[in-house]
């Protein structure tokens, strides 16, 4: 029997409702993954931008998350602040054991702070956006100013407007043996955006 992959989703207060559902839902339903909600705020729920409350399953300590095959850091209005939580130990240890680490929108700031973009192509919410929030960071010269997710080996990054390609790039990294399955999913997601199907 195939071992299920385990993905930890990192949420902080004012997380973006639209950035994780496609990945979490398809990872479980299409690929049989296990998912856990992680947050530095383990004493109670974290609230989304849309006002919904989510109760984390775990904290972000590396010793509590040794079973994770991947970590997805979900964007939030909290990440740009100077008192944003430091999750570098979780990200670095996951990557060091061969896991996948992804960040979307403000979640890319956590990856940049952890130094994970050094020597790796990456993207976020536009050229200069990361520097405007946290200043100079390792790997800034490899920023890709594109509207879709970017994957460089085990690191996946995306602007907040690209949850679709964040999902497919993340799953492709996590399930390289299922590239054909991911391609089907990419085609499924793309249908909505075809110009020949546009209405009005």
TrEMBL record:
State the InterPro entries in the record.
Class_I_gatase-like, DJ-1/PfpI
Q: Which UniProt keywords apply?
A: Glutamine amidotransferase, Transferase
Any Pfam family matching the protein: DJ-1_PfpI
Q: Does the keyword field hold Transferase?
A: yes
The DJ-1/PfpI domain, residue ranges: 7-172
Write out the GO MF terms.
Answer: transferase activity
Q: Does the keyword Transferase apply?
A: yes
User: What is the protein's name according to its record?
Assistant: Glutamine amidotransferase
